[in-house]
Amino acid sequence: MKIYNIALIGFGGVNRALAELIAIKNPLWERDLGFRLNIVAVSDLHLGSVISPNGLDAKTLVEANFAKGGFGRLSGGNAEADNEAIIKTAPADIVVEATFTNPMDGEPAVSHCRWALNSGKHVVTTNKGPVAIAARELKALAKANSVHFEYEGSVMSGTPVIRMAEKTLAGAEVKGFEGILNGTSNFVLGRMEEGLDFASAVAEAQALGYAEADPTADVEGFDVRLKVVILANELLGANLKPEDVSCNGISKLSPSDIQAAAKTGRRWKLVGSAVRNADGTITGSVAPKQLALGHPLTGVNGATNAVSLNTELLGPVTMSGPGAGRVETAYALLSDIVAIHNAQSANFAKEAA
Amino acid sequence: MKIYNIALIGFGGVNRALAELIAIKNPLWERDLGFRLNIVAVSDLHLGSVISPNGLDAKTLVEANFAKGGFGRLSGGNAEADNEAIIKTAPADIVVEATFTNPMDGEPAVSHCRWALNSGKHVVTTNKGPVAIAARELKALAKANSVHFEYEGSVMSGTPVIRMAEKTLAGAEVKGFEGILNGTSNFVLGRMEEGLDFASAVAEAQALGYAEADPTADVEGFDVRLKVVILANELLGANLKPEDVSCNGISKLSPSDIQAAAKTGRRWKLVGSAVRNADGTITGSVAPKQLALGHPLTGVNGATNAVSLNTELLGPVTMSGPGAGRVETAYALLSDIVAIHNAQSANFAKEAA
């Protein structure tokens, strides 16, 4: 049985949910997946940082109600976060990057990933920024250091659409995709179908915790644009940057637009898509579209996300599931660690042979 | 670059579509997947059988309009089918089983699989019979002979739901599933929503080639029952036989049932499902159910199939795609061969190390 020592960078909702899972699921994972996870370091801008080579008790970590700088009171702790030192010096096999997404240059998460990979540590992340902006560089860096860079949770949280396409559709010839990739905007559109105006629907999403205080990234399509870049680069072999993808949100749709569509059996959806053109180039876009009954994305309701892959041999193949959520996103990190474990086990068998 | 020699057992729509793909796609597969396929034998009850150790030209095989017993006129051919001899003696790496499904004992396909596995040949099949009735035995036989038994196409044709669950959802804790697993019955229900009575909707499905002359297996749920057995055994570790799964079809639904549901935003669907009970046992069933708006299967229209996996950490994760079709089902065979190739490549690397 294998133990992976992990360092958590950021201790907000997602990494806290991962620690909660570790506190209760390690025996199950040991039995079913062949490994346990051991938290040897945590760093968080608010709480500070801590290194504990023998491992921190996950339950204590989750249940202690740390105040600002609270990690400073732990053995091996520091009231200040020092991400660089933690990433470079903690005795971790895997760095779990779950800090905030910066859509402009991906920092500081891109640096976090670079430091980890250059230190010979695997990286798993749910952070769209470094994947949308620097996946090609970081994948090359991982390869050069014989470690893995995995990021299933950067799109659709734990719904494994990236790995599904890569592990199960080889030879089906993916030609493009369309997706509902932002739960907040899809929720807002659903409430507008039920009669609310845009502002009221956004206010309700905020009250329910779906939308942030500034809902711009969700409703203007900027969040979806990063996900289109990630999926186009990953599934279609593109090399898009966010500014290459045209981007229109839903804020200009009126209740009468929505209701006019409904009268003809159609629904407005915010669709992120990419397609391979005849000349081999890839075009990505984010735009509201009227989808007819029978389109694979028309029935996707509420905060659910979905991606429909258009394939040569199968036509559309669609996966839907959660697109957000603490535990759901923490599962993405687990699924990345499973992928690393399976690849490591194969390597180990190879070396032993 | 690897060449896999394959023997086609049955030369109906599916294996003929595979031969059509081989005729045009081998160069693409060589580049993208790392192998070519070479047809070294074919056996078909109507056409006879042929063995050609250097390989048959796929294009010729597809385009020649063979009459009954027509393989007898080929070099190495025989006007009679001799499946046993072909399977045991053809110089094939992989036996591609695509004969008719026998829902009672799975024969003769179960014997075809046994002969192939005992001869040290991999088996890929789209045939529900041997998988629903003998998967456990055949998997053990494959393991004992160090070969693979793969059957993605036994459920949802080429839509890779089995491999998706196994390769991408480890640790998500699948607790059960619900599926729309028969396109004909789903098409019939859709037409009944539009006002047709059951008999007229079935007649239309027959006219369009969706339903067979005897539609019993589709509309009474027997086809779905085999798929429930396959998925329950595969994804939930059950050991169900078809007779363990309760089975009710859609023939007793009236247009007024359908329309009463529609008035409350619900839709009748023929749902195949299985669930892990508190005591660890698995219960499978096939039954028409009224699904509410928002259920992941409610929007599945026409001949599309879908499976929604209920998971502990992600909630429902749903995959939809084609459930039938010649090329779509042939793709399932290709995806099985990709899986074998990837496993063989890993083994080869291990042995070379």
TrEMBL record, chains A, B:
Record pathway: Amino-acid biosynthesis; L-threonine biosynthesis; L-threonine from L-aspartate: step 3/5; Amino-acid biosynthesis; L-methionine biosynthesis via de novo pathway; L-homoserine from L-aspartate: step 3/3
Annotated active site: K227
UniProt domain Homoserine dehydrogenase catalytic: residue ranges: 160-338
Top-rank lineage group of the source organism: Bacteria
One GO BP annotation of this record: threonine biosynthetic process
Top EC group: oxidoreductase
Keywords: Amino-acid biosynthesis, Methionine biosynthesis, NADP, Oxidoreductase, Threonine biosynthesis
EC number: 1.1.1.3
Annotated binding of L-homoserine, by residue: E212
Binding positions (NADPH): K128
NCBIfam families associated with the record: PRK06270.1, PRK06349.1
Protein name per Swiss-Prot or TrEMBL: Homoserine dehydrogenase
Protein source organism: Rhizobium hidalgonense
